Input
Amino acid sequence: MMPNLRMSYDRESDVAYLMLNDEAPRKVDASRICDEVGDPVQTILDMDERGRLTGIEVRNASSRLPERLLREAEPAPPPK
Output
């Protein structure tokens, strides 16, 4: 069974977030920065308490993701 995939995008900060949910959203327990050669922090993986991937944050999304995908994304929720 495929997980429920949702994506939000904040145009102002140019940050996209891909949420990976099963039946219910899982709480983020830890975040891991993806190290890329010659690239500052651009992608962050969020994991739950069992080490399962729950979401992916992509910074500078407009230069890293297809425009169509960003247009179809939900607006990002306001900061808490």
Remarks:
- The chain has one helix and six strands.
- Residues 31 and 77 are 19 Å apart (CA to CA).
- The longest strand covers residues 4-10.
